[in-house]
Write a structure and sequence with these properties.
heterodimer; A: 451 residues; alpha+beta; six-stranded antiparallel sheet; 13 helices; globular; disordered N terminus; B: 541 residues; mainly alpha; two-stranded antiparallel ribbon; 2 strands; 55% helix; extended
Chain lengths: 451, 541
């Protein structure tokens, strides 16, 4: 590592695990027992021999210098992503100098590293000198885009028709037809290549079944779906930024072509959400230089962890590029210039009133937005009825936590961290309430992950 | 968030009206300002979309609820960072998540938590606040962890437990529900808490005071003794076990006349643990009348004449008259008398013999079991090392391993009266002769980490068991104990055992590999324990 002596924490290492099973297996191997000849170079390569009950120990090595993320090699038969041996080795290394001392790399590890460097250089050279991707026939590209737009338009028209039928007969009677109605509509939207519409429709079917709020939530979401379909059908008449937002909300993904912004990005939070098809990972970044908050999205097949994993609490010297759309927070991660390093920087916070106002302002550019990232300064978690809220320490104002956030174990870490005193909390603030994702203690100390 | 309170624009349709229309359907009802007809549903959705976004954009913070009172300060120094990481790792390892019965080579992290907590408590560190929920959850699942976990968790954990019903147990387990016991010199505070406190607070107060100033605690108890309820008297009396001394005798003598039988019995038990007490003297006379050396036989023999009745005086001194089902009355009374009589008196009574000589005497008419068992109980109660030694006998004696007069459970208790080094020597001698199959209970009373002789004996015995070709899980109890109790510095001596040995002819198939795995886990665990302890003892600045 270029940062001398920066070892990751166990949590950061475990975040690399592709699934719960390898996480578990990795933690078991994160102790000195099975390991021999473990060491690490000053440049950020870690290696070791992992003896199991088998005859020959596995040679395991990890290269942490790579800006695109750690690379692994292991003699075990496992494939893809870090195996439990690589995780165990990193955990051991995270444990400190005693277990994994600074040393000269053994010959086999040196060879692997050298092989990787050569391959990387060739690839780099190939990119520069080799022929760029065949220039697509612009006419063909245009025709393809037109055909797709036509299909989406047909989908939007059909959706409008279905919504109109729904409202004509009344939501009360439609409710009796149940989940199937939404599933079928979602499938039609998938056929129309409007993934964004399909996802929103499917979420309608998954709204909580009971509670007095349900009809209102359903109506609100139907109206926003209608708004999106109408927005697509009249996209020529929308301002450019809003039109781009509509496109991305509909599911027409455009590449992240914003200018690359280099900054030292603090990794604020990383969490996964999963449905039956897909695991979505959200990583929030805070630009310590620019003051900007950005979102990285990464996907994995259902039950598998997405590939991108960043160590929460550390800062990355890297470039990001924004996706198109007004008020777009989503970015793509570009070049990384140095391995993650610790920092004492924390994002500046605001009051609850300011946070609510910021969400309102963001809706101007994107009315479909569910929440915005904000950092609250000097708030105290307090019980409010059946739920919880974050109360301003100095004003009579508070943001309620979303019901989902109240049910998560992270809530209790937040309450424990606060101990009734004001803390700084990063999270998502929206119409459902506030979702805390990370918090900092009053005094010095690392961020505590709440998700 | 509260719904916005911005003035409603009169030109906007009423929200309730929109919702009602949407529920009923535009075929049945048209909202105000929307024309009926085929365009009505679309117009309704337009209006709802505007209202929804408008409302979301206008959200304001809610009123603040009552904020929780601040948690009390924890004055202890914070954990060193490496130790904090280790704790998080130990807590993340939940039992039962690995699945499958075989234990593999990796250590059981959860099993190390008690030791980690003891070490952290000994150094008086405070936990990082964010780890408290996991700590409370662990203590909730395992009652054996609770005292150490709650002590380590400290005042903020009790504060937290008041907010979450899942952690109520912490308030019950904590002395006085977390109320601080007044300082030693705060006599007014002590008196007030004693007179006005809840039962749990009073028990905690009495226990704390007794451990610092036994006489003051007894005086405090005496001051309200007559007015306490019987079950409370029993609990309070029990706290006098700590720091019991001859000064307590007159108070305990009075308690012998208590209205409650349980209180009387406890008072008698406490008095019999004071060899100089009047009760002990009375018991010595009674017991002495039952046991004598009979010189008329070829070899001197102990003759026993059990009491024929349980008189009022005996009952007053705590003898229970009614024998449990299946036991003869007379032997039941004899047992109680001998158990309560001071052991120091037997030498004079039985011809100036030492405890060893007395225990070695034959006993006539099958009374040996009853008599020796009563002496065992007396030795434990009076914490008499000389008698314990005599009753334990030689660890390598053949009968020590068999179902002799003294059971393994009794031996374990007798060992408890010896000092740690002597205890270790005895257990090591026992294992050397009898192997591990009977040793589990005895190992449990040895001080942790095990003294060198015990560690050596256990490792040698495991090695022998391996060479004999049995499977390691026949010894999983001792293995688990060794992982937790063996001195980490022994790890180096175990390296030779890690290799997979050539299988002897009569070995169980594959046993060698499993043994190597088991030893590997043992060594890994020892290393981990050494690392754990090192992390908790940061180099002095």
């Amino acid at each position: 590592m270029t940062q001398q002596g920066v070892r990751w924490t166990a949590e950061q290492v475990l975040a690399l695990a592709p699934d719960a099973a390898s996480r578990k297996a990795g933690s078991k191997l994160g102790a000195a027992g099975p390991w021999s000849e473990a060491g690490s170079s000053g440049e950020g390569t870690v290696w070791g021999l992992c003896g199991g009950s088998g005859s020959t120990p596995y040679r395991t090595a990890v290269d942490l210098t790579e800006a695109s993320g750690p690379a692994y090699t292991c003699g075990c038969p496992g494939r893809g992503g870090p195996c439990e041996h690589a995780l165990g080795l990193l955990l051991l290394w995270a444990g400190g100098e005693d277990a994994v001392p600074r040393a000269e790399a053994p010959e086999w590890a040196e060879r692997w590293i050298a092989g990787r460097r050569t391959a990387a250089e060739e690839e780099g050279a190939g990119d520069a000198a080799g022929s760029p991707p065949a220039p697509a026939d612009p006419e063909a590209v245009r025709r393809r885009a037109e055909r797709r737009a036509e299909r989406v338009t047909a989908g939007a028209v059909e959706l409008e028709q279905r919504l109109a039928d729904l409202l004509r007969g009344g939501l009360a009677s439609a409710e009796q037809s149940g989940y199937g109605l939404w599933e079928e509509t979602a499938a039609r939207m998938v056929d129309a290549q409007a993934q964004g519409l399909a996802t929103r429709v499917r979420e309608l079917g998954a709204l909580p079944d009971t509670g007095p709020g349900r009809p209102v939530r359903l109506l609100e979401e139907c109206a926003l779906l209608h708004l999106l379909a109408r927005g697509w059908l009249r996209r020529e008449r929308l301002p450019q930024g809003l039109a781009a937002t509509v496109r991305s909300r509909i599911g027409l993904s455009a590449p992240a072509e914003g200018p690359p912004v280099r900054d030292r990005w603090l990794v604020l939070a990383q969490y996964d959400t999963a449905d039956s098809r897909l695991t979505t990972r959200r990583i929030w970044l805070y630009g310590t230089g620019s003051g900007r908050t950005a979102l990285l999205l990464s996907y994995g097949a259902a039950g598998r962890a997405p590939e991108l994993a960043l160590p929460v609490g550390l800062v990355l010297d890297a470039e990001v590029s924004a996706y198109p759309g007004a008020a777009q927070v989503r970015v793509a991660l570009g070049d990384r210039f140095a391995p993650p390093a610790p920092t004492a920087v924390r994002p500046p916070g605001s009051t609850t009133g300011r946070a609510a106002a910021r969400y309102g302002e963001a809706l101007r550019d994107d009315p479909w937005l569910d929440s915005v990232p904000v950092t609250l300064e000097r708030v105290i978690p307090a019980r409010a009825g059946d739920g919880w809220q974050l109360a301003d320490a100095d004003e009579d104002a508070a943001l309620p936590l979303t019901p989902a956030a109240c049910a998560r174990p992270g809530l209790w870490r937040l309450v424990a961290l606060s101990g009734g005193a004001p803390v700084r909390v990063f999270g998502e603030c929206g119409h459902q309430g506030f979702t805390p994702l990370a918090a900092w203690p009053r005094g010095p100390g690392e961020a505590v992950a709440l998700c | 968030m509260s719904r916005t309170t911005v003035a409603v624009d009169a030109s906007l349709p009423d929200w309730e009206d929109l919702v009602t229309t949407a529920l009923l359907g535009t075929d049945r009802r048209t909202p105000a300002g929307v024309a009926p007809g085929p365009r009505a549903p679309s117009a309704l959705l337009d209006a709802v979309a505007v209202a929804t976004v408008r409302r979301r954009a206008g959200l304001r913070p809610a009123r603040a609820a009552e904020r929780p009172p601040p948690a009390p300060e924890d004055p202890r120094p914070p954990l060193p960072p490496a130790a904090a990481r280790r704790l998080a790792m130990l807590l993340a390892d939940r039992p039962g998540t690995s699945g499958g019965g075989r234990r593999g080579t990796a250590p059981d992290l959860m099993e190390l938590l008690p030791q980690w907590l003891a070490a952290a408590n000994a150094r008086d560190f405070a936990p990082p606040p964010a780890v408290l929920p996991a700590l409370l959850d662990a203590a909730r699942g395992r009652t054996d962890l609770r005292p150490a976990a709650l002590r380590f968790a400290g005042p903020r954990a009790l504060w937290l437990a008041r907010l979450n019903p899942d952690w109520r147990f912490a308030l019950r387990s904590a002395p006085g529900g977390g109320t601080a016991v007044p300082g030693l010199h705060d006599t007014d505070g002590t008196r007030r808490l004693w007179e006005e406190g809840l039962f749990a607070e009073r028990v905690a107060l009495l226990a704390a005071l007794r451990s610092r100033e036994p006489a003051a605690a007894r005086r405090l108890l005496d001051s309200t003794w007559a007015t306490e309820r019987a079950e409370d008297r029993l609990m309070f009396l029990d706290s006098l076990r700590t720091g019991l001394s001859p000064d307590d005798e007159s108070f305990l003598e009075r308690a012998l006349a208590d209205r409650s039988r349980n209180v009387r019995a406890t008072a008698a038990e406490l008095l019999s643990a004071l060899p100089g007490s009047a009760l002990a003297g009375r018991m010595a006379v009674r017991a002495g009348a039952c046991v004598a050396v009979d010189h008329t036989r070829d070899v001197p023999t102990i003759a026993v004449e059990a009491p024929h009745e349980c008189d009022a005086g005996m009952e007053r001194d705590g003898v229970v008259a009614k024998a449990p089902a299946g036991r003869g009355e007379r032997s039941w009374w004899l047992g109680q008398l001998v158990e309560a009589a001071p052991l120091g008196g037997w030498s004079r009574r039985l011809g100036g013999r030492t405890p060893q000589e007395i225990v070695a005497l034959p006993v006539a008419d099958d009374w040996q079991g009853e008599l020796h068992a009563a002496w065992c109980r007396a030795a434990v109660r009076q914490r008499d090392a000389a008698w314990s030694r005599a009753l334990l006998g030689n660890p390598s004696a053949p009968e020590a391993g068999g179902p002799g007069a003294v059971s393994l459970a009794e031996r374990a208790r007798l060992l408890g009266t010896l000092d740690a080094a002597e205890r270790a020597e005895w257990v090591a001698g026992f294992i050397d002769t009898h192997g591990l199959s009977e040793a589990f209970q005895l190992l449990g009373v040895c001080a942790v980490p095990w003294a060198a002789p015990v560690g050596r004996a256990v490792v040698d015995a495991l090695d022998i068991a391996r060479d004999a070709g049995s499977y390691p899980w026949s010894f999983s109890g001792v293995m688990g104990l060794a992982e937790r109790c063996l001195d980490p510095s022994e790890a180096g001596r175990l390296d030779a055992l890690l290799a997979i040995p050539d299988e002897p002819e009569n070995a169980s198939p594959g046993a060698g590999g499993y043994w190597s795995e088991a030893f590997q886990r043992l060594v890994t665990t020892l290393r981990l324990r050494a690392a754990m302890l090192a992390e908790l003892s940061p180099p002095a600045p």
